[in-house]
Queue: 2 jobs
Job 1
Amino acid sequence: MPSKTREPRSPLGIRIGAWLALVFLYFPLATIVLYAFTTDERSFTFPPPGLTFDWFGITAANQGFRDSLGLSIEVALIATAMALVLGTLLALAVARFSFFGRDAISFLVVLPIALPGIVTGIALRSTIGIMGIPFSFWTIVIGHATFCVVTVYNNVVARLRRSSPSMIEASMDLGASTLQTFRYVVLPSIATALLAGGMLAFALSFDEIIVTTFTAGQQETLPIWIFSQLNRSHQRPVTNVAAVFVILATAIPILLASRLTQDVSSEQ
Amino acid sequence: MSIEPAPIPSADQSPSLWRRISTFFYRRPSLALLLLLAPPLLWLGVVYLGSLFALAAQSFYHLEPFSGKVLRDFSLSNYQELLSASSRDIIGRTSLMALAVTLFSIPLAFPISYYIARFAKPRMKTVMFMAVLVPLWSSYLVRVYAWKLILAKEGILSWAVTKLGLDGVLNQVLAIPGIGGPSLSVSYLGMFIVFVYVWLPYMILPIEAALERVPRSLLEASSDLGARPLSTFRRVIMPLIIPGVVAGSIFTFSLTLGDFIIPGVIGNSSFFIGATVYSQQGTAGNMPLAAAFTVVPMAIMAIYLIIARKLGAFDAL
């Protein structure tokens, strides 16, 4: 530890810059929330002529909204489950073994989110088309699982690297089988990482639009439904209510996920 | 007189099926590895990478001019098309936008990253870190839509500009050829703002992580040796955070290159790579040309990632 010298005070410029960035990040989200209450349904006049709660009821009754919300939740759950399995397998392999091409794995996993979504989307679309698979619920799930693996993988591999392999050896020495060791030693140690990775995967899938545009057939996920609403000229606040919903549905898992990973790192 | 040794109780006497399986794999780690790797590698390595290669391969096909059917024989006609003036325009405009967005995000991201890494107290640090994280993961479409509300003709921005009496300034900015337009919501400038907005967290996080790793003692040493804050920044901090900056730029650059939502919602309907690919594969039905267009961001990103790796950006991700 360095000597306990006086913490330098932050320079004014840095503080102003930091707060400006935060305002820049949150001001648009606040706008969305504000316009979910406006009485003006044809344009986005500022300041809003009046405020109302009506749009929440109207949105809840909207069939398109309900269908797409249900679809998005189903897709996100299944894609997350697949990502959990694939990501954990990969993380175990990378953290516990050394093999040819191991360094390329992190590259391969990050590729679906590092490449522009349109590339992933169109590549999967043409493959699905060539293989003659009809575009359906499952093709959306396949697309989503592809880019969700990275969140699970990253979380689990980071956790495995921090936990010591001697625990596993001890378990084996004490007579536990590989499966018992996995069940009673490895799994508890990666449980919160799995939960965190899974929630991030859920959030990622829930609001994805670009890949979905290419891998969906007639189905509309919530983001696609919102996108189709953008050019409507009346009942505009309905879009805002849906958007507020999406913000909450993704922000809450994210907050929980980082809470989970933070608790562990502060214990260390 | 010999005493029979008591039989050693052994798990091997009647090993359960699970245990035998488990021992089997424990003795053959390469087989265990294979089982672990097979499903994810089949998915990502074969299906996903295979799709990318198949897509790249399709860029060498071409359309039968009369029937509009895809002919599966080798031709470079799509690449000739990519070199045409209008395509070069699209590629140039998109790359320039990606570059501008990336370069502008760096100074915008630095103060908050520096504040979080260096000055924020632990509690504040967590709060600010989350504050950056939430927009990063939360709905991209919703955040683009928010700017449509803000930049709209009757929206908040014009209201604020009028209240502040800055109409003249805004009109002058909009009159600048190249970046301006009839209003912010249909100008390059508006698109630029939205691009910077949606990708900014991708730049903040790796820079923050890189700053976190700069040893405090180096900064103290620098100032002990008489360096002013600015030269400490330039000669100590800057070189050390380059990997973080490069890691962030992978995202800002790549995501701008392929985006077709923002030019659709905010832009002035001039074509960007993403929008071109979208319309070529969809309405125009010219999949080979669309594939050729996707090769452009793939190639740019491949080169970019190789350089980034050399600069150590992968450890900063």
Job 2
Amino acid sequence: MSTELRHRFHQELDALESEVEELGLLAAEAVRQAVDALVHRDDGRIQRVIDGDDDIDARYMDVERRILDLLATQTPVASDLRLVSALMHINLHLERVGDQAVNIAKLARATAALPQQETILIRLQEMADVVVRMIRTAIEAFTRRDLELCQKLPLMDDPVDDLNRGMYRQVVALAADPAALEWGIRMNVVARQLERVGDNAVDIGEQIAFLLTGQFREFTDASHPDTPL
Amino acid sequence: MEVSDLSAWFGSNQALSGVNVSAQPEAVTAIIGPSGCGKSTLVRCLNRMHEEVRGARVRGKVLFNGHDIYDRDVDPVEVRRRIGMVFQKPNPFPTMSIMDNAVAGLKLVGGVGRQELRERGERALRAAGLWDEVKDRLNHPGGRLSGGQQQRLCIARALAVEPEVLLMDEPASSLDPASTLRIEELIEELKREYTVIIVTHNMQQAARVADWTLFLLDGRVVEYGPTERIFTNPTDKRTEDYVTGRFG
């Protein structure tokens, strides 16, 4: 059974893995660019993030289609099955990260004429730095098959969640100035988008852990009573 | 059914080495492995068919309901009645009628009246999922049925003697996809009443029908466990390599 056909199947799995890793780096870069564009009010860069999402979507669709082909024609099992399943989930998480970058870029454009507030921008940059690092860490853990590294992702995510939760108070403090408040409310949504990027990175880590151990467990459980909003 | 330290030979060639396995009752156990790994030999040792080959011998125990089927005072014919077998290629008696085929084993056992033969034949044909297709032509020769129907007729023949265990040696490998599916559905139904042990080359078939899967390599058990685990997260690298097609 170790035929040329099976060899080609494993080659295709390797190729898909490389493409998902590239997609991860592209999605992380899109988030970084979107937040930079927001901070520096750079409309050219905003447009590049929005346009760049077509490439991310096309890559996502291509990987999805090829995975379905493999499922239909190769009936993968054992570690191959776990890899196919992980690729499918990671691919979707990364496509969402691309969408979150676009949402941030559109919010940057929508607020371009409103007054900015320095502290909130610093918080958003800090969040962006962490979540971009998280996506890259998740991809590195995938490439290296590093269980320990993906288990660090929830810890990296904690400050992101804290910053997101604290954003509300920062925005409320702008209540006296309607224009600043409008900007702040939009920035609260940006913070929420960044927090979701962090969650996607943690979810990718869970998929890698499943790939490596065969056991699926959530690193964090939003339904747990101890989990703050 | 429990196999304990079972080894088997064809002349000087050892086909099985120290096999230990416990088949779960009212469940389907699949035996998988590359060609020549001893799958068919193992299953043939489970109802003493192996010893029918000239020069073949067995060492070890096969406990059935706590008794070793290889004990000196055990009648192999009685063993084969209680542990039935279905082979790779359908082998009905071609000129014998469908009903006579179904009850052929019962007739050999003897002591069964005509009415009871007819009732048990019908019951076996129903259990094999063939009754509705043949009830109006029970006197037609078995050889006129399609390949899939012939295989179900052979299953009916095995069931008619009311075994407790059904051994199946690649029962669908010579059938088309639709007949294969029918056999697989039948296996799913049979496990409610019988312990089913199936040898298959088709790993997707093992994954579909078996509750437990045993991976055999070079006459030795490499891994035995719930099918779901064997096909998603096997513990032995050799199982992983075999089921993913990296060797075999």
